[in-house]
Amino acid sequence: MYKLKFNPTDKVPKVKQIVQSVVADIERGVLKNGCQLPSISELSEQYYVARDTVERAYRELRERGFITSVQGKGYYIQSKGEAKCKILLLFNEMSSYKKLVYYAFIEALKGHATVDIQIYHYDAVIFKEIIEKNLGRYNYYVVMPHFALGTNKADYLEALNEIPAEELVLLDKDMPDLHTDCLRVFQDFEKDLYCALQGLNDLLAKYHRLVLILPSDGNYPQEIALGFRCYCIQNNKEFCIKETATDEAPREGTGYVIIRETDLVELVKKIRQSYLLLGRDIGVVTFNETPLKDLLDITVITTEFEEMGRTAATMLLNKQRTRVKNPFTTIRRRSL
């Protein structure tokens, strides 16, 4: 017998829950054209709801063209053509890199889904409100789970656990504390940076001191700092972590790992005002490619943002639920 996604204690009205469950399963392909739904009496008894509630839900579904009734036989799914699944994207912000993921995701869906996007600005309260408001309205919830530093994990894990595992997709960041079998396409920020720096050992050999510029006001993953420390310790490098390049005086024999482009510009200005030569006396490697970094001939380490979007869309359409580490690459230039 057909199983509704139904929660009697939910704030969502029971009629709306029944309608949303049936529509979602039609769009997902669980309920196909001609499938018979449980009778009003069966559904009423199975979920302990009033017959009038089920009748009102079926009436709405019939009026909207999702089902049809046959006298003396019951209610059946009525196809409205190829069903498109509905996807809600939840991003912490819409940066240029997020746009690469978004457009690649949309392109890879090839018109098989409609996509809405909402931004929660690293705020767990806003995130939770969006989830609560939209539960049951979409077939999939694609989430980039980046929250402000200091946010209590319970504040967002509770909201994520409300989403059924088969409907949840995590993008960009894995969440080991979320014990659900959902699709995940992610960066391993600690391991990616460590491996990228190891791969640049031949160029970093001439720098005895390394500095990571990791802004405290940007909500960047703290795993970046862990990967940096691990590399420096294992390679006997003097190192420090700073929040900005503003008070940094470039020193010969120092290599810099920079996250934010404004810090890159600040540091390059200081280097050009000194006797030091970039790529000989001072080294610079930055996160994520931009036209400016190409122009300045700056070495870049980056995840493949477009690949992340394509992989998530393809696996979602194929109903795959697994963990996929996104590729991470290095672009070698003369800044090292």
From TrEMBL:
Q: Which residues form the HTH gntR-type domain?
A: 12-80
The UniProt entry, under InterPro entries, shows: Peripla_BP_I, Tscrpt_reg_HTH_GntR, WH-like_DNA-bd_sf, WH_DNA-bd_sf
Keywords assigned: DNA-binding, Transcription, Transcription regulation
Q: Which PROSITE patterns match?
A: HTH_GNTR
Gene3D superfamilies, alphabetically?
A: 3.40.50.2300, Winged helix-like DNA-binding domain superfamily/Winged helix DNA-binding domain (1.10.10.10)
Report the superkingdom from the record: Bacteria
| Molecular function GO terms recorded | DNA binding; DNA-binding transcription factor activity
Name of protein: GntR family transcriptional regulator
| Organism (species) | Hymenobacter jejuensis
